[in-house]
Amino acid sequence: MPEVKVLAVRELTAYLQRLMSNDGRLANVWVKGEISNLRSPASGHLYFSLKDPAATLRCVMFQGRSRGLAMGLRDGLEVIARGQVAIYPRDGVYQLYVAEIFPAGTGLASLALQELTARLEREGLFATDRKRPLPLLPRRVGLVTSPTGAALRDMITISRRRFPGIELVLAPARVQGEAAPRQLALALELLAKRGGVDVIIIGRGGGSAEDLSAFNTEMVARAIYACPVPVIAAVGHETDLTLADRVADRRAPTPSAAAEMAVPVRAELEQRLESLAKRARRGLEHRLELARARLERLTKSSGLDRPRQELYYRQQYLDSLEQRLLASWERRSREREQGLKLLAARLEAASPLAILARGYAVCRRPGGGPPLKSSRQVLPGEKVEVILREGLLQCQVEEARE
Amino acid sequence: MPGEEQLTFEAALQKLEEVVKALEGEGLTLEDSLAYYQEGIRLVRLCRQRLSEVEGKLQVLLLQDGEVVTRELSLPGGENHGT
């Protein structure tokens, strides 16, 4: 039986490293290509790729070498780089350790894009003062993306997590390839006209610059600009801003982030409502407390005759108020949300009727008018009426004390 | 109140915020406070209604022979998968 030697990954990698370092040509190569995915983290090292239509080469330029670099490196720039090709064992990739870098004239595609960008900017397509606010709670959210991509799946998942049952309408479109720009523009138009949506997300999954071209076309930029409802662009690329990103009302780093912008968290809206209801209750309670304090100072009162009909009228008014409150909350109690039931009970407990039921009363002039707040508002001998939880008292003031 | 049915969640919430601010302020009579409070309750109810109106539909808009068609969208693998 032949002996099989099993290598650890590091052993195989070390073998390949030796192979490459023994090759004199790889130690000092000149490569021409267009920069893409340029990143310069805090470390000061530069990371990017050099690419041409057929291939991509990962590059790193360490801080000592990149410092003092006169030319501004940026994506799309065509350069000639000199350096050593070696393996980066942790990622299992080969890359060019750049020693020097030179401009080789700006890439053609990049030049054309620059020209288009400048033109659309002059036309005002990117103007910040035309960015529209997103609706707090959209009736429906429109999605323009590939029906098969991960972007759609992510947007649905996030939307449903934040607001279960939120309505989503997809207008499918290819996001790359020759047909993409026209399909994207058409999908936007369809959604806006027929989708009944309040906000639209146009997006795709992450990827490198090669796949972004559809979002850098004039056709897509203009379709976003013409869209009557706010558009969120989620083209999923961190370093390059596409034209779609710049025209859109908002841009998101990923489709998931776009869904977070478009769809509110239902529980948070409920909390906000609850807090408002609580504040309303406190405001009213405070006012009733003030009224109570004044009423307590009106110590003396005595019952007086008054047509019973008036009494019934007051009673009926209170009853109908109570019924309306109860009816509205009873209806809600059948709702699914438990939180609302609690809220309803608390509001009910805090209603003015409940406070009257606790033994407080409202004092005012006979036949209506605002509640009396000061003993100075009446003179001895004047008549006042006192509304209780049940019924009404007609009283004559014997004495009005400060 | 006419037009009330069309009030969006956002508009109703905004009104509710105004009502609450008025209730928290000093300018209202007791009777007005009661009326505002009732209005507040009504708006809370309306907001809750808007929140529960969603039908949970997942649709797809398609162009077929020049006509726009709406279909229910079904995803392979069901809806309850994680990210």
UniProtKB/TrEMBL annotation, chain A:
GO terms for molecular function: exodeoxyribonuclease VII activity; nucleic acid binding. InterPro entries: Exonuc_VII_L (IPR003753), Exonuc_VII_lsu_C (IPR020579), OB-fold_nuc-bd_dom (IPR025824). Residues 8-101 form the OB-fold nucleic acid binding domain. It catalyses: Exonucleolytic cleavage in either 5'- to 3'- or 3'- to 5'-direction to yield nucleoside 5'-phosphates. GO terms for cellular component: cytoplasm; exodeoxyribonuclease VII complex. Residues 125-347 form the Exonuclease VII large subunit C-terminal domain. One of its GO terms (biological process) is DNA catabolic process. Bidirectionally degrades single-stranded DNA into large acid-insoluble oligonucleotides, which are then degraded further into small acid-soluble oligonucleotides. Heterooligomer composed of large and small subunits. Pfam families: Exonuc_VII_L (PF02601), tRNA_anti_2 (PF13742). It is found in: Cytoplasm. Belongs to the XseA family. It comes from the Bacteria. It comes from Neomoorella thermoacetica. This is Exodeoxyribonuclease 7 large subunit. Signal peptide: none annotated. Keywords: Coiled coil, Cytoplasm, Exonuclease, Hydrolase, Nuclease. It is an enzyme of class 3 (hydrolase). Residues 266-301 form a coiled coil. Its EC number is 3.1.11.6.
Automatic annotation (TrEMBL), chain B:
It catalyses: Exonucleolytic cleavage in either 5'- to 3'- or 3'- to 5'-direction to yield nucleoside 5'-phosphates. It comes from the Bacteria. InterPro entries: Exonuc_VII_S (IPR003761), Exonuc_VII_ssu_sf (IPR037004). It holds the Pfam family Exonuc_VII_S. GO terms for molecular function: exodeoxyribonuclease VII activity. Its main location: cytoplasm. Bidirectionally degrades single-stranded DNA into large acid-insoluble oligonucleotides, which are then degraded further into small acid-soluble oligonucleotides. One of its GO terms (biological process) is DNA catabolic process. The gene is xseB. It is found in: Cytoplasm. One of its GO terms (cellular component) is exodeoxyribonuclease VII complex. Its EC number is 3.1.11.6. This is Exodeoxyribonuclease 7 small subunit. It is an enzyme of class 3 (hydrolase). The lineage of its organism: Bacteria, Bacillati, Bacillota, Clostridia, Neomoorellales.
